[in-house]
Amino acid sequence: AEAAAEQLQLYRRDPEGWRGCRSTGEVAVSWRPSSEFAGNLYKGQGILNASPQKVWECIKPVAGGLRTKWDQNVKDFEVIEAISDTVSICRTTTPSACMRVISPREFVDVVAIKQYEDGTMQSAATNVEHPLCPPQPNFVRGFNYPCGCFCIPVPG
Question: Which residue range or ranges hold the START domain (predicted)?
């Protein structure tokens, strides 16, 4: 969990190589080649007219949280084991897509939640295997490299 959080901080601090691919008035999506796997990293950025605490309530990875209510790509989120107040093993499921051509997925990750002195909140996750969560029938087991979210306060 700590390694995933550190990797996300490195991505955040390194502005090199990011190329814009989509942008609206609210969100900009960028990508760059990954140094960890044969593929790309993606990041989305936007500024919301809300307090960091209200935004964090919408995105924080907790069982019973708001993410399953607004994110159509997250069907369910459950905590398999709480390691500490800030680290847990979690299972996320996604619905099928493209008229069921793409099967539902399940991801089992170790998730760390951090808060920094400047008020930034971070969730960081990466793939893990856990004996209490073997692959489930009717789901394809997905694999996450280090991933997550930042909620960064901005002045005003």
Answer: 1-156
CATH of the domain at 66: 3.30.530.20
Please give the full DSSP string across 73-112, using - where no structure is assigned: T--EEEEEEE-SSSEEEEEEEE--BTTTTBPPEEEEEEEE
3-state secondary structure of 99: coil
The answer to whether position 118 is within a domain reads: yes
113-142 pLDDT, tens digit per residue, is: 999 999 999 999 999 999 999 999 999 999
Q: How far apart are CA 23 and CA 29, in angstroms?
A: 6
Residue 67 located in a structural domain: yes
The structural domain count of the chain equals 1
The token duo for 118 is 């400047």
Residue ranges in the chain modelled with pLDDT below 70: none
Domain containing 147 equals 1-13+47-151
pTM: 0.89
